[in-house]
Amino acid sequence: MRQHQLNRREFLRLSSAMGAVTLLAACAAPGAAPGGEGATGASQEPIVLRLHMRAGGETSEPAIYVHRPREFTEETGIQVELDPIPAGEYWAKIETLAASNTLGDNMFTDNKNWQHNRAVHFGLIQDIDDFMEAEGISHDEWLPGVIGACIVDGKTYGLPKTGHPAHAYVWINHDMFEEAGIPIPETYGSTWEQYREWANLLAKGDPDQRTVYGFHMPTNNIQMIVNGIRTFGGWELNEEGTASPIDEGWRGFIQTAYEFYQVDKIMPTAADIGSAGTVGLFAAQKLPIMVSSRGTNKSVREAVGPEDGSGGNFRWSAIALAEGPNFNGWGSSLNTHAGTTQSKHKYESFLLTYALSDARFAYLNANEIGYLVGRANELEEIGPAAEDPFIQLQFNQYAKGVPYRIGANYRGLEWEQIIVNTTDLVYLGEREPDEAFFTELETALQELLARPI
């Protein structure tokens, strides 16, 4: 396996090997032409890659959208032009651009609602195996569950910006645990039974009007739902993506959430959480246990202070979410900056895809933002960030990732909406999680999955 940080000289050599005559002209000195001695012609414009991304990333994730692209330009001479699109409009805009044949060169993709695979199906993303082979880049650079999410029908589409396990972490308030006489849990090995026991000990106030809730997990989030199903031993879909059988995983997760919401009344609803959000409740010591994803750690550090309480607030930590005896792996939530099939600079767009997934990218990402990519040797590549206990926890959770199963008709947004709308009836106490409920849920999902693409 060869680790790459492509410099300008190597870029030119590789371009020549690929037969990229136009690229050589674009990267040559001003006035040079590809025809060698005696060639004439005006100087060529530099190559500019247009990168579609979610608006706001340039400020919230500067390592990804400012610092690494700037280095990439310095290394290769290729310029990167960001095209921010509001997150709520992102995929609609991408499909509009594709329909008019005006897609840029690279685009952010994600697969929590199957959109990455939908884009592959409709021919929007280029496969990059030939480019990877030409440069000696191996899938072994990434964890299997992370790179596996990029592989569709044996071909590689994009490389990971990340393949994170989403809601696979639990934040706990040490001071409140000790006050309740609960030993501080180890980083790994907690159980759902323990969460329920702890939450009942920690909750305060009348059950119908809590002053302190015991536990929270976002049951309206598809990443949480998939992880919940898998931790109870189930799968979100069959392997073909044609059905969502309501197995023991679905039943176990929904039943547990129902007990937390309606039987013990230790978990707040969205209305109970209000504008403060779960981090706000955690910081105010009104929520001692909460399940969330990796970005929450930075928010807790900002709201509460250091884990050891040295900032004058309470002590806290993040631990791994319970796995269950038949655990099927966390859903690998893939993000890429894949090259598009409409790019006029496909090789160069591949180079940008790799630069936003390589070891240098991982270093910047971990040290500036606190996120991992999902590279196989990432703890050896990221320098001082590797000493952070939450970074170490992230790495171990990434390593347990298994790619999402993808619906064959790519109707992931609708699939999520049916699940959320239907299960909310149970969580709000309007339905019982009985056999009739599970039959209705499975029927609704089957009807959706039977619809055409």
From TrEMBL:
Which branch of life, at top level?
Bacteria
KW Signal (keyword) present: yes
Signal peptide interval? 1-28
One Pfam family of this chain: SBP_bac_1
Q: Is the keyword Signal in the record?
A: yes
* The entry's keywords: Signal
PANTHER family linked: ARABINOSE-BINDING PROTEIN-RELATED, BLR3389 PROTEIN
Provide the protein name. Answer: Extracellular solute-binding protein
Q: Give the source species.
A: Litorilinea aerophila
